[in-house]
What we know:
3 helices; about 40% helix; Alpha-Beta Plaits; four-stranded antiparallel β-sheet; alpha+beta
Amino acid sequence: MVTIGMNYKVLPGKDETFENAFRKVIHAMRGISGHSSSKMFRDIDDPMSYVILSEWSDKSAFDSFIASDTFRNVANWGKEQILAGRPAHTYYEH
């Protein structure tokens, strides 16, 4: 089992759009092989900073997901219209 922390910094005024978009992504992830659960959290000291913690069977299942066209399309859209910078992923193996 591995937990992936996907860290995002959102442009001012885009927080609601970001949250709504990721509700759809998290819902769609429920059917992906190797994915167990995902939850989004917002930083109380920096309301434009978010982390999505995602549980996967192993790192290769997550790597397959982020290499998919579906993820790439969402990530590119977010980078151009919503995000203040490139997302950072952190792996926590347990």
